[in-house]
Amino acid sequence: MIKEVTKSQDLFNRRKKVVANGVGVFNTATVMEAKGAIIIDVDGRELIDFAGGIGVVNAGHCPEPVVEAIREQAGKYLHTSFNVVTYEPYIQLCEELAEILPHGDNTKVMLVSTGAEAVENAIKIARQATKKSAILCFTGAYHGRTMMAMTLTSKVSYKYDCGPFSPEVYRLPFPNFYRYRGTRDMDKFVEDELKRLYESALNLVDPKSVAAVIIEPIQGEGGFNPVPQKYLEGLRGFCDEHGILLIMDEIQSGFCRTGHWASWQHYGVQPDISTYAKSMGSGLPIAAVVGRADIMDAAAIGSIGGTYIGSPICCVAASATIKYMKDINLNEKAIKIGNVIMDRLQHLMKQHSEIGDVRGVGAMVAIEFVKNGDPRQPNSEICPQIVKGCAEDGLVILSAGTYKNALRILSPLVITEEQLEKGLSILEVQIKKAIKNI
Ligand SMILES: Cc1ncc(COP(=O)(O)O)c(C=O)c1O
User: What is the mean pLDDT of the segment spanning 232-242?
Assistant: First the structure.
């Protein structure tokens, strides 16, 4: 009997023939349409989305006010280039971003199209503002795939044979409390990690030549690792002592994911510059660099920009997204959803020693798998099985982490209680199944 090829399989076969292999496949799902937290695949199957297009649809797939704003703008003008002809949607969005993400008394903003571009520009601005060149970044970091962003990115598999990389980039160990604490409590761990930070002034790079430190307060691709509170405070102090700018990359953790516009707002530690993208535009390519006005204005005229920076369609989509997030109080929803996810997964962790950790802030939650209950023995085999099993059962989910041994939940925050419970049940079944198989 000839087995019928599904439309999804057919689409994948076509993809294989024509799309470069290097464009990775993180999940085998396909899409015909999507709304809220549901994706309908090309075979008409309903899938619950726990991946959110890699953290892009915190406000849900196709929120009505955003779609409406895009339609309306499309009927007016599509492109003039902001460098050439000034338009209000760009300015309005910058005003809104400065209001929700204040960096001191006077905040300025620049818009670009992607997260990696925001990171590139943040570095350029920091270098121009300090007239210094070295940049400090962290192990486990992900900042994008353009040349500087890729250099700052830690994971080697993202950059095979892509060098030479950007010079003057130095890497510090990220204070990953779960993996490396050993028998130490948080205070002792942070004390030791801050010692290493200060030692870097002796054994890594002269802080007098460092323009900026870039950090994700909660690492995204690295496995949803939150930086300890006191470490971030200590890092702020280190930067201030040496005239180094502190850049926080909020591209994955921003826009309500953690229950705030940015995760640094939980810490009460203010960056000098911060970067945003993903859920800010509900799927349209828009990103922002936000910073203290004196720093942002240090960039020479013409040194930052580009043809498509802050496209009017993307600006109105982002403004409508921010308004919608405020109207439905998405930050509050993130906290509620996060509590439900944490409760379910922590309960599961108590039953299985293979689950080493369940951690998160707001609705940015990850579950990490290890061997022998040991944080230093990551289990890399289990996540691909769970992701595959979930896909078969109608749940789209992604892994994360240096060893790909964590699953991260990035569901739209407009997900209904029923959809969330159903998704978590599918996940639970697949976790138990994969644990049995190993
Ligand atoms: C923290 C962080 N920074 C930067 C980026 C790069 O953003 P983009 O893929 O839009 O270039 C990402 C993407 O996943 C990210 O998670």
Answer: 98
Report helix, strand and coil shares of the chain as percent, to nearest 5: 45, 20, 40
Per-residue pLDDT tens digits for 147-193: 999 999 999 999 999 999 999 999 999 999 999 999 999 999 999 99
How far is residue 413 CA from its own chain's centroid?
15
DSSP state of 25: -
Short-list 415, 407, 345, CA closest to 26: 407
Please say whether the beta carbons of 111 and 94 come within 8 A.
yes
pTM of the model: 0.98
Mean pLDDT over the full length of the chain: 97
Which tens digits make up the pLDDT trace of 6-27? 999 999 999 999 999 999 888 8
Verify whether ligand 1 is closer than 6 Å to residue 283 (CB atom).
no
Q: Whose CA is nearest to atom 7 of ligand 1?
A: 115
Fold of domain 66-327: Aspartate Aminotransferase; domain 2 (3.40.640)
Mean pLDDT across 49-75: 98
Token pair 């109207």 in the structure block, residue:
327
Instruction: Kindly give the distance from the C-alpha atom of residue 144 to the centroid of ligand 1, in angstroms, as a whole number.
Output: 5
- Do the strands 38-40 and 33-35 form a parallel or antiparallel pair, or are they unpaired? antiparallel
CATH 3.40.640.10-classified regions of the chain: 66-327
Helix (H, G, I), strand (E, B) or coil at 434: helix
pLDDT tens for each residue of 316-353: 999 999 999 999 999 999 999 999 999 999 999 999 99
Atom of ligand 1 nearest to the CA of 117: 11
CA–CA distance, 242 with 432 (Å, rounded to integer): 50
**Cα separation, 138 vs 266, whole angstroms:** 21
pLDDT at residue 354 is higher than 80:
yes
Query: What residues does CATH 3.90.1150.10 cover in the chain?
Result: 7-62+329-436
Quote the CA–CA distance of 88 and 94 in Å, as a whole number. Answer: 10
With respect to CATH, is domain 7-62+329-436 assigned 3.90.1150.10? Answer: yes
Residue 119 · residue 275 · CB < 8 Å: yes
Residue of the CA atom closest to atom 10 of ligand 1: 115
Q: Which amino acid is at 231?
A: Y
- Got the DSSP string for 187-219? HHHHHHHHHHHHHHHHHT--GGGEEEEEE-SB-
The residue nearest atom 3 of ligand 1, judged by CA position, is 143
